[in-house]
Amino acid sequence: KQKIKNILSTPPNIINFISLNYTDTLEKILSGGIISKVIYHIGPTQHLHGTTTNYLTLGVSDESQLSPGMSARAKRYLVKSSQIDATNDGRLEVFNSVLRSSSLVVLFGTSIGTTDKYIWVQLVNWLSANTNRFILIHKYDSNFNENSRLSAWRENSFVENVQDSLLMYSKLTESIKDDLKRRIFVVHNTKKIFVPKN
After folding, report:
1. 112 Rama sector, left if φ>0, alpha if ψ -120 to 50, beta otherwise
2. Fewer CB within 10 Å, N- or C-terminus of the chain?
3. pLDDT tens across 62-108, in order?
4. If DSSP codes are grouped into helix, strand and coil, which group holds residue 82?
């Protein structure tokens, strides 16, 4: 907690949102002033996979997730990063720029699934490139409750499973992954991601 507090209190306090959601739900939450008590500059929300009204991007992370019998053209338009690149609207460049300039990445509301593998690979590479970078993952699991926290084994197992769900997309050695886990924090079943402290 102290490491995260230190990062958030170090200027410039800029929060950028990269959304994988196609709706404007996040913008509505932010415009409601829910984090107005905190002194941060909020950058515009970037929809990496487009929106329901503009460049909706559906598909998979890479060609290995498609049938080998598909045509090259069909494959190109089903791979998310290829679709985004083809629009030539700068979304990938914005994503890369925001990631490079960040010291903390918070994952909220994502399953860290294989169809977005290209993002998770890039995120793990970003983390491993600098020891002053951190990832905070909010994970909801209906089987994990307050009683689960009473057991150190269950708590640690839950956290490690979430960390592994991200690190499995890298080709790093197990010892490097173990080092990275010290900079991947897991918050479970929270409803307070946007609620500032008084």
Report:
1. left
2. C
3. 999 999 889 988 888 899 998 998 888 999 999 999 999 999 999 98
4. helix
